[in-house]
Here is the input.
Amino acid sequence: MPPISITKWKLKLVVGATMVSLLSTNDIFASAWSSGLPFRSGQRASPTLRTGSVGMKSYRFTRLFSSNNETASTLQAESSELPPYEIQADGGTALEERGLQIQDADGNVTASVLSPDVHSVLDINPEDIEIVKKNYTNLGDSNTVSSAVSDLFRTAHFVDMFRGSANYIASHRNTLVVCHVPGDWIDSDDPTVFRNLMNDIALTWLLGLRIVIVVGCRYQMEQRLKDRKKHMNMVITDPESLRVVKEEAGYVRFEVERQLARSLQGSRGREGDGNVVSGNFYSAQPFGVLDGVDYQYSGFVRRFEADKIKQVHKNRDIVLLTTLGVSPTGEVFNVNSEYLAAYAGGALGASKVVYFLEHDVELRHKVYGDKIPHLRAHDGRNLLNLKGIKTQKKGFVFVDDKCPYDEEEKNMLVKIGWSMHALENGVKRVHILTPDKGALLQELYTRDGAGTMISGDLYDGIRPAKVTDVTPIHELITPLIEMGTLVDRPKAALESDIHQYHVYTRDDLVVATGQLKLYEDGFAELACLVVSPVYRAKGRGDAMLGYLERLCLQKGANKVFVLSTQTMEWFIERGFDSVGVESLPPSRQATYNKSRASKIYMKKINSSRDLDASELLWNR
Here is the structure.
């Protein structure tokens, strides 16, 4: 159909600003000036006319005049003839929000020409939208609606993973973590590893961690100084070496700052901005002369400014430390970076110290062939003694010449050595891992982790009970027996079953006890779990429970149950579920006291990693 010319249309513009621009979906087709200047003409445009009865139509203006001009304008319609509506703007600045409106003689709005400031070319035609039921049985089928990216997350267990991270996020929030970053990754052949590591550290900061980064430059030093002098495995820093250390320490510092600035830029310009702060947060002193060898400018920490670092953290900033420490006399000393991270963790009361390995190395069990994800402090010490590794608190690491491993494997042992130093200084846990593939996030926020965690001896003081413990155990449980919370256990019964009992002692005083009974088919019962009133709410009950659960796993029992009449909630909070009598092993069903009607709670332990995860939530 050829275009139909409709004349006698009057354009009325109510302008509330000096100038109003009407934009079409293609280009500018008119400009109105309050001074009465004519519209710009000759611009082709296709504003959209929306009406419920007619639907979508396209129009173009060929010639327009200002609102104070009595000359009629011409509108060419590319569809059908329209009734003689009057076109006017909807009240001043509203022109920019709703565009032109078409009104009938009574002033009723029947259609509107929408301004693209509001409705752009990205609009979706409502006629193209339908409502369908989602079909989850065909996930992954590219021909179904359910193959959207949001649905594909379900196949990757994203939701379960994210939900599982909630406890870790809450547990780690507002805790202090010291991260040791070796210089190797800064100059890695794959620059994405270091860049992604900084992204991950920034993300942990966003999730609420208070972060201190200790960055080393040993790799850069070894690239420039091939024959560095060492004595007892400690580098001797002469004046020439010190000059190179200053250069390389400055280089790695600015590389970390540069990448973190990029990673933190998402928070710029809003409340809670994050910055990287570095400075003289510790002073150093020289090793001096040992065994007739002058270590010159190699030193160790003299004083650590923990309060100043905590003040920086109050401002939500990240602290960066290098290996250069200044003495009160103005001398500069080269400090071992791993030692500095361990020292900083202890001085700051850090919850964790994280050591990033230079190479992908892990611990494996020779018998079972599995990766060892967790070591106790005493296990770590035994391993170091066996392999000939010793650490000295001032920053020395002694590696026996007979150590059977190469440099990459020795480096893992050295990291374990410094982990012992951090734990002895009060750090709760140390993590050792390679930084690639998001390992930091996996280690901190998932149950299985990605590296090796070394924790303090949370079970120090717990041991198998002896006959001499019968009397203190009986004194501990008697008040609960009198209250009816526990079944009566005469001293004779305690003595005959003493091999099933374990005690928690402090200064030779029994402060907690627990009984472990093994049954068929991998079942175990935890009974008589009692903590002295003086030591309750201090983690002693959790420690005793965790110790007994680890014993169960060690003895091949992964289904643990308890019977309780009073403390049901305490066990539910620790992962136990209510079950019926039929869930007990047959031999225990036969001895169940129905008149006492104790409630039964059971927990399945899949691996030691489950117990590691539960320890994070202890209120210690």
